[in-house]
Write a structure and sequence with these properties.
alpha+beta, 2 helices, about 25% strand, about 100 residues
């Protein structure tokens, strides 16, 4: 039997709503993807930022006992997005969505 007393939390927001947390996420991505995993991504002043970090991007910050432990972003599919552009073959048989609905 697994038992946990961990306290999980998530926060959804846009950059304009919390610039400080956005920068924490972008630093987290630089640490994880570039430093830890060795991916060849651009880092500017310690922040991993790409063309999909736009004003309409919705970020999710995942916390475990108050410590940032993960993140993801939600991006409209009627604009270019990472999966469609960087991993075009990963969509399989159905292809990627191209509209808001």
């Amino acid at each position: 039997m697994l038992r946990s007393t961990a306290n999980f939390a998530v926060r959804y927001f846009r950059e304009c709503e919390d610039e400080q947390l956005t920068h924490r996420i972008l630093r987290f991505r630089a640490e994880l993807f570039v430093k830890t995993l060795g991916w060849d991504l651009a880092v500017d002043d310690g922040l991993e930022i790409d063309e999909f970090d736009r004003p309409d991007t919705i970020y999710a910050a995942l916390f475990l006992d108050g410590i940032l432990c993960g993140t993801f972003r939600a991006i409209r599919t009627d604009h270019p997005y990472l999966a469609e552009r960087v991993f075009p073959d990963a969509a399989g048989l159905r292809g990627y969505p191209k509209s808001r609905s």
